[in-house]
């Protein structure tokens, strides 16, 4: 009788896992394949507990490590070299805090530029990833200065998969801004609470790109919360000005749109990114140029959130 009850509970756990979050990549990557000692939880694999309540790391197992060990002495020397830079950054933070005036932080109708693309230093604020980086595809991409002096995200999308019997779909490229930090390596957020519109000057190729606003939460289950909206480009030689209200962005986690929706927490934006995929036969070359990316307060836009927010019963998972 005890054995049957245990199996029923396992089925309930599996159902709840599918309804809430899909953490199957952890088990496929080899995490938690061992069983707990029988004295603790007989018949319950570790992977079920991990899938429900625990993320191993913020990258979902996609961290790239060199495997090179650094001696303690070298770590101390490197830390002392950075100490002076951190103190200078700390002083600059306090100067800005004491000199700032809340009345002139933003003006209605004026665009405050957050990202420029004028030099290699500006491009270093972004990180580029493709399926090829983790041997899961053959897409190639670059982010570099164009001949005209603008930031250019370009490459070739391929949807063919490696013949390893593991990967089912591939063909994507992504660029993401680095997490901003305060002095002494403290994590920080972009605070765009006083703005309501994302503004860009871009030149595309006619493809649709996905804009990603990451709002990384404190708990591991919120690490992958990203707000999305589609960026439609016209193609051709002409630049286009894009104005997207933040109220249009919708919440997803690991690519799955969530039932429980809400406005973007603009005071906790950890990064901004752009993705392009080959799904639906859209293989081939892509090209997206950036002049600048900024934020703006539009007093004529009063919408708080563009989508319906359903109130789910309390017994439904993920509400």
In short:
The chain has 319 residues and is an alpha+beta fold.
Describe this structure as you would to a colleague.
The protein has 5 helices and 15 strands. It is an alpha+beta fold and 319 residues long. Strand 6 and strand 7 form a beta hairpin. The longest helix has 28 residues.
Instruction: Kindly name the structural category.
Output: alpha+beta
Let me know the number of strands.
Answer: 15
> Quaternary status of these chains?
single chain
Kindly report the spatial arrangement of strands forming the biggest sheet. Answer: 2-5-14-9-10-12-13
Strand content: 25-35%
Distance between the ends: 33 Å
Order of helices and strands: HHHHEHEEEEEEEEEEEEEE
Largest sheet: 7 strands, antiparallel
Tell me the number of helical segments per DSSP (H or I, 4 or more residues long). Answer: 5
Helix percent reads 10-25%
């Amino acid at each position: 009788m005890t054995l049957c009850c245990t199996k029923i509970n396992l089925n309930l756990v599996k159902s709840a896992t599918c309804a809430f979050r899909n953490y199957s990549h952890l088990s496929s990557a080899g995490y938690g394949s061992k069983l707990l000692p029988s004295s603790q939880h007989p018949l319950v694999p570790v992977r079920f507990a991990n899938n429900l309540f625990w993320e191993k790391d913020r990258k979902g197992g996609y961290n790239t490590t060199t495997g090179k060990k650094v001696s303690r002495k070298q770590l101390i020397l490197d830390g002392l070299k950075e100490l002076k830079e951190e103190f200078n950054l700390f002083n600059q933070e306090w100067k800005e805090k004491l000199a700032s005036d809340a009345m002139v932080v933003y003006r209605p109708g004026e665009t405050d530029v957050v990202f420029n693309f004028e030099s290699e230093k500006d491009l270093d604020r972004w990180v580029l990833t493709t399926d090829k980086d983790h041997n899961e595809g053959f897409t190639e991409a670059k982010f570099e200065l164009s001949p005209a002096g603008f930031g250019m995200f370009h490459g070739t999308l391929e949807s063919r998969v490696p013949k390893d019997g593991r990967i089912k779909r591939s063909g994507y490229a992504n660029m993401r801004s680095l997490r901003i930090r305060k002095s002494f390596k403290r994590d920080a957020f972009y605070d765009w609470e006083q703005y309501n519109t994302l503004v860009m000057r871009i030149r595309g190729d006619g493809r649709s790109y996905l804009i990603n606003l990451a709002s990384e939460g404190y708990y591991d289950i919120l690490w992958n919360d990203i707000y999305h909206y589609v960026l439609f480009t016209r193609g051709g030689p002409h630049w286009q000005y894009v104005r997207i209200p933040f109220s249009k962005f919708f919440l997803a986690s690991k690519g799955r749109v969530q039932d429980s929706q809400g406005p973007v927490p603009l005071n906790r934006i950890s990064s901004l990114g752009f993705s392009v995929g080959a799904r639906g036969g859209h293989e081939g070359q892509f090209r997206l140029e950036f002049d600048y990316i900024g934020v703006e307060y539009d007093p004529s836009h009063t919408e708080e959130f563009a989508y319906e927010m359903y109130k789910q019963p309390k017994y439904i998972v993920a509400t």
